[in-house]
Amino acid sequence: MAKFVYDFTEGNKDLKDLLGGKGANLAEMTNLGLPVPPGFTITTEACRYYLEHGDRPEGLADEVDRHLAALESAMGKKLGQSDDPLLVSVRSGAKFSMPGMMETVLNVGLNDESVLGLAAQAGDERFAWDSYRRLIQMFGKTVLDIDGDLFEDAVEDVKRAQGSDDDVDLTADDFKALVDRFKAIVRDRAGRDFPTDPREQMDLAVEAVFDSWNAPRAVLYRRQERIPVDLGTAVNICAMVFGNLGMDSGTGVAFTRDPASGQQGIYGDYLQNAQGEDVVAGIRNTVPLTELERIDKASYDRLLEIMETLENHYRDMCDIEFTIERGKLWMLQTRVGKRTAAAAFRIACQLLDQGLIDADEATRRITGGQLAQLMFPRFASRVDGVQKLTKGMNASPGAAVGKVVFTSERAVELAGRGEDVILVRRETNPDDLAGMVAARGVLTSRGGKTSHAAVVARGMGKTCVCGAEELDVDVRGGQFTAPGDVTVREGDVISIDGTSGDVYLGEVPVENSPVVQYFEGELSIEDGGDLVRAVDRVMAHADARAALRVRANADTPEDSARARRFGATGIGLCRTEHMFLGDRRQLVEQLILAADDQERKAALDALEPLQKQDFAGIFEAMDGLPTTIRLIDPPLHEFLPDITELSVKVALAGDKATEKDRKLLEAVTRLHEQNPMLGLRGVRLGLVIPGLFAMQVRAIAEAAAERRAAGGDPRPEIMIPLVGAVQELEAVRDEARAVLAEVGESALIGTMIELPRAALTAGHIAEAAEFFSFGTNDLTQTTWGFSRDDVEAAFFSRYLDLGIFGVSPFETLDRDGVGRLIRIAVEEGRRARPELHLGICGEHGGDPDSVHFCHEVGLNYVSCSPFRVPVARLEAGRAAI
Ligand code: ADP
Ligand code: MG
Ligand code: MG
């Protein structure tokens, strides 16, 4: 039979699937001999069973009984025992950390009798009643689903009556009174009494933690972070230790390195006489961890010693939750800490230098997403004419500009209309998640670097300034005030700098980040500082390891040159359609309206030299590197005037309508399509409009010849779009070859694979193609049978809600469907032509997950937008490690 419960002494850090991250690491710390209060973990498997069947699996109750009995005998007291109660926390803990998303209930086991026993044992009545009211509050909110504000408001009332704004000033009698009020709230709102039986409290709390897996904010967070929906959470039952036992007690969080910058040092927050969640909630302002040295030197020294043990053991930056109970230090949690992108690069290289990890491991620990973050623009260093409002803590880097909003709902609403917003709050809580996702940045007036806002924003890579204490935020009034009598209202534009903590009124201009300046060659490694050095080092290792090459999608000489500076090894997709716009539209019209071969030829002859120039510039920028040029792809009518406008014009002109307009309207009408995506486009155009493809091929060949004559080394490759049958390709290939031969140039000729039929008949198509490039945008559309432009607004969010896909298939390649077609095409294509060169040129070429897929199926290269090239290089290296 399955084992559903593990004592902390039984687990270890590698059992995260089963025990969740928190449980696995509590076990690991226990086994390292660190001071962890004893306890046990109920597995994710039990949770999954419960969520599926609405009931606990058979045998779970017995196992919990046995482990609880063992815990009780280890502690020498029983859960809720009236003269000397054992109290426990019931804590959620999934495989991937979801800060503050799920539930935890502390002080389980207190009731009207045991609170007296606790008071007597501790010799502290106030503490016991404070703990009791916290239990009812957390239990009411978490287990009984009562609005937490009701409890908060009651606390505020009592504080107001005392003329104080701090919990610390409340007395035992105040807390006793609160317990009565809280019980009344429970009775009123939940229609039942607060349960006095300790075991019932515990069992109900366990179920509530299970259920919290499916709380809306947890669902949203998982989608945002791409965490699978069906993992479930473990539940940790842990003997309570008390940080609220007086000024020689307290609770805190610590990082073994700065999670914002990666610098080594002592980082964290500490709060005296408090229980754990007080720190994270940002209710009271904490002191920096270094102050603990003054407050309690022995605990401080012990903590530093443990931090070093943990870093060496995990070989990574860790974050830690600890509590001090009357001078005794307890470890309550650790995990490999979330960090900013810059910190990730710095820490990986520091650990490499310390010999704790090797270069492969350092590269594995950094993601393409993190590199992308470092490439975001930042505020210009010289800021004139913009008013600085204040400086807060630099909680999560980046430069964000937007309109001020004060609620999550407004943030979502305005962002939905395409506006940039900054969410401004006193502090955030898990219910603000939707607003944080929608906002460009987050600004809070309270809470430290470990507050909810800071932790969540860092996890999302969202710009955040927190603890800007000079600001007075009035959410209800829809405004905040800053020093110097400045009032900022909803809708006013502010700029926040998550790297420095500065907050400005108005819009601050942005400039390239140092990492982009380095890629651009505007900043040398020497001048770039340790971050640029770390990036350079990791990139070099990734390039050395990568099997996939990275090309760029670029249509102009400028884009091509930038792609090359960013490390592209060629162009995987040069689109030619934009070369038919602007002034050249006239010529396209002539081509389409041509009455006979002669008129058509005249139009083509006029277009050719223009095309040739376009290609010459690109070949120059890409000298010595392969340049894949796709022949014209979109439906022809896209180059013609809008049918409605033209009809109106001709109708209004009546008899006076020009012959030209009339013929144009006739052509536009003839070419109008119900379903242009599936209409006359791609290779079909080449077959229907004589001379069009030949003109393009001639322009390519002549541009190449010209470059060669000038001493250059052009490497053109000609790519035919939207082929579904080998016969289509054969026809245009023969035409292209003839033209190339005439000019005396050569080029590889290949095709895009972007229709299911092409993938399914790839073995035949490969006989006529020297390369394949998977056009995964169209291939995704045609495989699913939906058009991207039409579906994203219409039903994608519903599909994401329903879990039909975890992420849009236009963002990350759908391995099961589209990926299967790619596998078939790769295998059958290579079987027919072993030297077949294979690449991908859809948007997916710059998506980390999709890059890994391309590596797995053995493509030769990925091609993506120039700006994504470094990300794809890094991921190509990581995929090969
Ligand atoms: P989260 O995952 O949201 O951090 P936790 O389960 O870690 O939730 O618990 C919330 C807070 O309660 C933390 O600050 C933690 O340190 C504290 N806490 C949890 N269990 C105990 C315990 N047994 N004794 C004292 N404090 C605890
Ligand atoms: Mg925690
Ligand atoms: Mg296409």
UniProtKB/TrEMBL annotation:
Cofactors named for this entry: Mg(2+)
Keywords, comma-separated and alphabetical: ATP-binding, Kinase, Magnesium, Metal-binding, Nucleotide-binding, Pyruvate, Transferase
SUPFAM superfamilies xrefs: Glutathione synthetase ATP-binding domain-like (SSF56059), Phosphoenolpyruvate/pyruvate domain (SSF51621), Phosphohistidine domain (SSF52009)
Record EC number: 2.7.9.1
Domain Pyruvate phosphate dikinase AMP/ATP-binding per the UniProt entry, residue ranges: 60-285, 294-343
Domain PEP-utilising enzyme mobile residues, every copy: 419-501
Occurrences of domain PEP-utilising enzyme C-terminal (ranges): 536-877
One Pfam family this sequence matches: PPDK_N
Matches recorded under InterPro entries: ATP_grasp_subdomain_1, PEP-util_enz_mobile_dom, PEP_util_AS, PEP_util_C, Phosphohistidine_dom_sf, PPDK_AMP/ATP-bd, Pyruvate_phosphate_dikinase, Pyrv/PenolPyrv_kinase-like_dom
Keyword Transmembrane set for record: no
PROSITE patterns: PEP_ENZYMES_PHOS_SITE (PS00370)
Catalytic activity line of the entry: pyruvate + phosphate + ATP = phosphoenolpyruvate + AMP + diphosphate + H(+)
Broad enzyme group: transferase
Presence of keyword Oxidoreductase: no
PANTHER family to which the protein is assigned, alphabetical: PHOSPHOENOLPYRUVATE DIKINASE-RELATED, PYRUVATE, PHOSPHATE DIKINASE 1, CHLOROPLASTIC
Record family assignment: Belongs to the PEP-utilizing enzyme family.
Protein name per Swiss-Prot or TrEMBL: Pyruvate, phosphate dikinase
Lineage summary: Bacteria, Bacillati, Actinomycetota, Actinomycetes, Streptosporangiales
Protein's gene: ppdK
